[in-house]
TrEMBL record, chains A, B:
Organism: Massilia polaris
Top class in the EC scheme: ligase
Location (main, coarse): cytoplasm
SUPFAM superfamilies (UniProt xref): Class II aaRS ABD-related (SSF52954), Class II aaRS and biotin synthetases (SSF55681), YbaK/ProRS associated domain (SSF55826)
Assembly information from the UniProt record: Homodimer.
Family membership noted in the UniProt record: Belongs to the class-II aminoacyl-tRNA synthetase family. ProS type 1 subfamily.
Domain of life: Bacteria
Protein name (record): Proline--tRNA ligase
């Protein structure tokens, strides 16, 4: 490729609405252009990266036995109504009516359509397993699109769907996809981590997220450096901080804490460690029984320095359908205002659930269920009935790893892939069944597997940039190498050597661009550093006279002289690394 | 590829709603699956063809200097309002509102978006020329989607847009695209013809359609077998059938023709040649002048056996905004009913426009402007004032070619590509200008160039099929060659030779599939004949014992024995043809 026949358009400054570095750099490098909120044109340089990302995904998916097809973007509402997602998805699902008033969804994902395709095609267990995928434009009408390609509305996704005859088959298909994803992200040249994720209704460990590690990542991911335990914050299991409960040392005392409704301020006032306090969170569960709605009071207890994990709360038996109690409900149940609640002496019956750590605390401080007062020296069994115990909190750095093989660390990640054991949720709703060995119909066991193609670009940049611009991993760089001739138009020697080298590099399979735009060296180098091409070779008269070219890797601080004759092998060596 | 790892699903019968052969065969071959009206899933076999079509387009577009980008599918209404197409496009433009009530179009084409991209990027003539393209899903809410991929609602299109500083530059860009299209359709291996098309408001010869020739084609295309003249029916110029007008021989006579309102029945009644009759078509043009609407009567005259060409009518000065006259208007202007109109003796002033052929007729028969009567022996100048003359009719087979180099032939075609000189229509509406050499702003000269990617599949099949199924041209076939082993599972000899041959073919770059599904020969062959793979090689024990394999091309009536050792070269030879 010659730069004069390509379209390069860089900017000194990023537009003011670009909040994060990947968005800023992609705008400055001319890789994307905003068309509307969360909607971007992929400019030629950006599209080249997307195509390389897609090619790697396609190769590995095919290698893993998945079969590519292409499902439509505009999908009939009827299919979405079969699974109930037409209602459930809310305003994120972009809906459209055709000229006859029929309703359609612009696809955010394709579970319904692939299940419809498969239920028309699969009759027998002999046709299984099957795994179909497509790489297609998606639309999600995000409430607040932001961060460029990281949370856009229109984006490209690879989504795959596996179909198996039984659970074991589905788990085998899942493993194949997990391994394919590992191969894909490895080939991208990105630091990534697969973490166990919450699996919603299905349970088990049937869901993993793939995160690109970046300090700017939206998500906290948890791992154990001395074992292979890894999970996202929603799913990471929090162990009790003390394995057993110690004996009580203090008496229960009511102390005045006027205007002190937070654990932090209570600890300050009482001059105690925050870790000695217990935070109380009141929930209400409404149940309908024979047409009558009854309310249950639930109280969750966390150590003062811990954070509630709402996903875990939803998994406590009886709490799948909870909400936070209103101030009126709190007053009625506990006889006080928020900030002074506790497990001792509520006015109405309350189901108390203590986090595992709280369950093993002694002599703790909690609200007295009386405005302006807390209790110190509180102890389970003696002062309060033994609570129900559950894992309710987010883990923190240094917690014991649930596999018992070390302590947990936390880092930031950007979710770019998700593999998920769906089970029979969609196949049952859509009556997608097959005949098993005994001729009996059974619902298909499904898995689904997504990769955010365009999001990969943002994530790769968040992980790889410096003050000059982007630093693409070679496998997904818009070009692997830029040839920068000095005075290409005026020096015959430079032009000849550049063209010769270019031809040799192309023949060797290197994805190379010649910058023949006639820019001065400073401007030329700045463009390519901003765009993030991994290798640069400068062809200049001075060097040529000594038989040399100047090579510089994008992360190198200075250039290296490389003999003209050896340059192609030198680059092939770099690419083979 | 192994068939056991691919998805093949053929049908004995096509669904009853598949009206044309390409639709029927694609459904039967399992290449597409209907999701909704005019909306199809491209199944794995169909997608392989699409990808090959796209790859050829991409290669030739890049070679021609066009630069690929990717514009969004969901496009803000504001851009479409700038050009007025938001209103003009009518219900074919699929419109959608986001959660904030903002309006968007699902792209049917991207003139507005590319012009918006370019007006933000192009400042100077130095940046020109430029040609951007993308290959993207389109949606057009057709009133009556039909014919499978031929007139679908969701489809894939390649659309390119060129930007130049002046008319000459635009025409040069147009020529480059015209040549690229010729290269593309040649590589597809399809019989095609580029024909001049009507250019709407812009005029000149700045528009060509590319048609795949097929007897089932929707469009009539006109060409001269002895010259390079070719045009579509709308644009083909009709020459007068007589170069000069002969002298009058008959007197004007009013004859009774009760209940005879068609030229055919008048000719029958009067026992004359239909070619001696003239058909009259009454139009009304309404003009608003200073708030007052006035009506003009126009009468178009065609020879009795000729067809009106409405595009040509719209180009007659004064008729850009016409409509057919109502029966009341006809009664008022001509004093009679439709079927008895003529250029002689109307009640009100009428502007008469005669087709070129009619203008040179003598002693013709026309309506008498009196119910139940026609005139015979009518002559221009003597009986009627000399009319305005224009080309108003469709050409017919045997007409003189407008280039004077032979006579015209007509064949049927399927439009699969269109190149179009847009001029400054979009750039002026959207204020997309650049600074010329003198620093003066000038609007960009644009061209646009489309190829219906998915439509190519339908068109290729309409041109290439037999009673067994599809016959793909090699360059766009889902697979180039199918290896059909006999008893692959049971004969070690067959399995070994098949696997060895497969490996050699893959190494030689042949796109080959092994049918290892274990079907009986008849069913196996029928599948691949239906799917339309161009080359088949059967590996069987009997042949192997004589050192032979059986080759059969998809159009061959019988198989040829080819020595095992020579098969790869034999196939390479076929592919090189």
């Amino acid at each position: 490729m010659r730069a004069s026949r390509f379209f390069i358009s860089t900017l000194k400054d990023a537009p003011s609405d670009a909040e994060i570095v990947s968005h800023q750099l992609m705008m400055r490098a001319g890789m994307i252009k905003r068309l509307g909120s969360g909607i971007y044109t992929y400019m030629p340089t950006g599209l080249r990266v997307i195509r390389k990302v897609e090619a790697i995904i396609r190769e590995e998916m095919n290698k893993a036995g998945a079969i590519e097809l292409l499902m439509p973007l505009v999908q009939p509402a009827e299919l979405w109504q079969e699974t109930g997602r037409w209602e459930k998805m809310g305003p994120e699902l972009m809906r459209v009516k055709d000229r006859h008033g029929r309703e359609f969804a612009i696809q955010p994902t394709s579970e319904e359509v692939i299940t419809d395709v498969v239920r028309g095609e699969i009759k027998s267990y002999r046709q299984l397993p099957l795994n179909f995928y497509h790489i297609q434009t998606k639309f999600r009408d995000e409430r607040r699109p932001r961060f460029g390609l990281m949370r856009g509305r229109e984006f490209t996704m690879k989504d795959a769907y596996s179909f198996d005859r039984d659970l074991a088959g589905m788990q085998a298909s899942y493993k194949v996809m997990f391994d394919a994803y590992t191969a894909i992200f490895t080939r991208f040249g990105l630091k990534f981590r697969a973490v166990a994720a919450d699996n919603g209704a299905i349970g088990g460990t049937g869901s993993h997220e793939f995160h690109v590690i970046a300090s700017t990542g939206e998500d906290a991911i948890v791992y154990c450096p001395t074992s292979d335990y890894a999970a996202n914050m929603e799913a990471a299991e929090a162990m009790p901080l003390a394995a057993e409960r110690a004996g009580a040392k203090q008496d229960l005392v009511k102390v005045a804490t006027p205007g002190t409704t937070k654990c932090e301020t209570v600890a300050e006032l009482l001059k105690i460690d925050l870790k000695q306090t217990v935070k109380s969170i009141a929930l209400t569960v409404e149940r309908e029984l024979e047409g009558k709605v009854t309310k249950e009071n639930w109280l969750l207890l966390l150590r003062g320095d811990h954070e509630l994990n709402e996903i875990k709360v939803g998994k406590v038996p009886g709490l799948s359908n909870h909400r936070f109690a209103t101030e009126d409900e709190i007053r009625e149940a506990y006889g006080t205002i928020p900030g002074y609640l506790g497990p001792i002496g509520a006015r109405q019956p309350v189901r108390v659930v203590a986090d595992r750590t709280v369950a093993n605390m002694t002599d703790y401080v909690c609200g007295a269920n009386e405005e302006g007062f807390h209790l110190t020296g509180a102890n389970w069994g003696r002062d309060a009935a033994e609570p129900e115990v559950a894992d309710l909190r987010n883990v923190v750095e240094g917690d014991a790893s649930p596999d018992g093989k070390g302590v947990l660390a936390i880092e930031r990640g950007i979710e770019v892939g998700h593999v998920f054991q769906l089970g029979t949720a969609y196949s049952e709703a859509m009556k997608a069944s097959f005949l098993d060995e005994n001729g009996k119909p059974a619902p298909l066991q499904m898995g689904c597997y997504g990769i955010g193609v365009t999001r990969i670009l943002g994530a790769a940049i968040e992980q790889n940039f410096d003050d000059k611009g982007i630093i693409w991993p070679t496998s997904i760089a818009p070009f692997e190498l830029v040839l920068c001739p000095m005075n290409y138009d005026r020096s015959e020697m430079v032009r000849e050597e550049t063209d010769k080298l270019y031809a040799s590099l192309v023949e060797a399979g290197v994805d190379v661009i010649i910058d023949d735009r006639g820019l001065r060296p400073g401007a030329m180098f700045a463009d390519w550093e901003l765009i993030g091409v991994p290798y640069r070779v400068v062809v200049g008269e001075r060097g040529l006279k000594e038989g040399n070219l100047e090579y510089q890797g994008r992360r190198d601080t200075e250039a290296t002289a490389v003999p003209v004759a050896g340059m192609v092998d030198f680059i092939k060596g770099k690419l083979a690394q």
